[in-house]
Design a protein that fits this description.
single chain; 207 residues; mainly alpha; Rna Polymerase Sigma Factor, Chain: A; 61% helix; 0% strand
Length: 207
């Protein structure tokens, strides 16, 4: 391999630069593997509880019940996971959202909770109207996922997203508003949307 000042560094593939996606453990859970079962809990229990806290207005009892019910369903239904149809996270959080709806239907809301048809609209999630509770819950979960990843973006990336989606400006108008090259706006928007898509997959909102 050539060295020295004139040497060309080896190219780094984009695949190598991306974080590794953990292998699914649900197939192991389906056959009773204890290590896989423990890993499933470690990966998702905290995140399912956090979702339950938010959906219930921070009712810890509801959140704890949601974790228990979700994992019972996962342990019993792990064999239904098909990696060709979606990610493991999507499977887990689909089960969790259905379990949350079941809890509401059994009347486990605290006195301060609101029905699903009146859950807050966050990040554009439509939670009112004639849709089913599952539709409303999915919309709220997606809205929270969007809001969370927006908070993790750099100030520059968040700025272009806000101007594009809330101020409804074109990329050319954003460049003029901020006094930066159009190419910079495109680069920041691309990076922000890539982070958003990755976060939605990680949180099981999309595949």
């Amino acid at each position: 391999m050539p060295t020295g000042a004139g040497a060309v560094p080896p190219a780094v593939s984009s695949a190598a630069a991306m974080p590794a996606v953990p292998s699914p453990v649900l197939p192991g859970v389906a056959v009773g593997d204890e290590q896989s079962t423990a890993e499933l809990w470690n990966r998702y229990a905290g995140r399912v509880r956090a979702m339950g806290m938010r959906l219930s207005g921070f009712d810890s009892g509801f959140a704890d019940d949601l974790v228990q019910e979700t994992f019972v369903k996962l342990w019993r239904g792990a064999g239904g996971f098909d990696a060709a149809r979606g990610t493991e996270a999507t499977f887990v959080f689909t089960v969790a959202r259905r379990a949350a709806v079941d809890q509401w239907r059994r009347g486990r809301r605290s006195s301060t909770d609101r029905p699903l048809s009146r859950l807050p609209e966050i990040a554009g999630a439509v939670t009112t109207g004639s849709g089913s509770p599952e539709d409303h819950l999915d919309a709220v979960a997606a809205g929270w996922a969007v809001a969370e990843v927006l908070d993790t973006l750099s100030g520059a990336q968040r700025e272009v997203i806000d101007l594009a989606y809330y101020a409804q400006l074109t990329q050319t108008e954003i460049a003029e508003r901020l006094g930066i090259p159009l190419g910079t706006v495109k680069t920041r928007t691309h990076a922000a949307m890539k982070a958003l898509r990755a976060a939605l997959v990680t949180n099981g909102v999309t595949t």
